[in-house]
Specification:
- The protein is α+β, with helices and mostly antiparallel strands.
- It contains 7 helices and 14 strands.
- It is elongated, with a radius of gyration of 26 Å.
- The chain has an 8-stranded antiparallel β-sheet with strand order 7-6-5-4-3-2-1-8.
Length: 303
């Protein structure tokens, strides 16, 4: 029986061609924009961020080279978030477009665009930095900041997953989220729209509880707590402490009038000290019953 090379040459040639094609595609996908010296990045997310208009508004304050460098870094980080699988890399922006939007990834770091002064178009700043993993989140070290005060830049971020959505939150965001859930037992849409959410995630309804970092998880109450105010001179104390679930920054609402709100400023095991933000306008009396829950507070029994 005569052996025919033709029967194996064609499959081998096809296999070699397929491997070559896969290799070329892999190289093209894995090559970040920053690897190409001739790469001309486009303004990322120009429509939602009003990016081009914001940069033009700065005029001579920021040079073209700085703008191009920022655009290139954003595009490089955005590319990394698409190509390299990571559970938190990507572009994050709030739905209401009132605060920072950021591109963040392990190797590329962070590029951030932030509106200030109520989201006015002309008050926009840029920041770039490196990110490193911490026990519960990401630490950000900024190496470039343009037209932004330091006090508006997050230095610690926490990836939070809630159902099919991913959020990139700072400590203030998580505290606001926890307080909203404890006080309302639901997540208000006005708050979720202001939190940086990863672009491309499905806009599915939020159900259950968010997967918070361990240090914040204990602040989510399984059931509302309630206590009594004792007035000691100018200080206000409540018989709720860490054993009951109280924590610094927690709001407590008067059961007979949920518009009256006190904030926990110091906490011990069985008691806490609270501040009255409306001091001088609202007088807090001895024996006032307060609760962690705001909605239907009058129906909550004192613990």
């Amino acid at each position: 029986m005569r052996f025919s090379y033709d029967k194996i040459l064609f499959p081998v040639a096809m296999l070699v061609a397929l491997v070559g094609t896969i290799t070329v595609v892999h190289i093209m996908l894995s090559r970040a924009p920053g690897d190409d010296p001739n790469y001309q990045p486009e303004a990322p997310d120009a429509e939602s961020l009003h990016y081009a208009a914001a940069l033009a508004a700065w005029g001579p304050d920021i040079g073209a080279a700085q703008i191009k460098a920022f655009q290139l870094r954003w595009a490089t980080i955005e590319h990394e978030g698409r190509v390299y699988v990571d559970n938190w890399a990507g572009v994050y922006k709030p739905r209401d477009d009132t605060r920072e939007s950021m591109a963040i990834a392990p190797r590329g770091g962070m590029a951030l665009v932030r509106r200030v002064d109520g989201g006015a178009l002309l008050n926009v700043g840029l920041a770039e930095g490196k990110v490193t993993r911490t026990a519960e989140g990401l630490a950000v070290a900024y190496d470039k900041v343009l037209d932004l005060p330091d006090n508006v830049l997050p230095t610690q971020l926490y990836p939070v997953r809630w159902g099919n959505r991913h959020f990139m939150l700072d400590e203030a965001d998580i505290n606001a989220l926890v307080n909203a859930l404890n006080g309302e037992r639901v997540f208000p849409d006005t708050l979720v729209y202001s939190l940086p959410q990863r672009a491309g995630d499905p806009d599915t309804p939020l159900k259950g509880w968010p997967d918070l970092p361990t240090s914040f998880r204990a602040h989510l109450l399984k059931a509302p707590i309630a206590g009594t105010v004792s007035v000691e001179g100018k200080r206000l104390h409540v018989n709720l402490g860490t054993k009951q679930g109280a924590f610094v920054g927690m709001p407590l609402y008067a059961v007979n009038d949920p518009t009256v709100e006190l904030h926990v400023s110091r906490v011990d095991e069985d008691s806490c000290e609270v501040d009255n933000p409306a001091a001088g306008l609202v007088i807090i009396s001895n024996g006032l019953v307060v609760s962690s829950r705001k909605t239907n507070a009058a129906a909550i029994k004192q613990s």
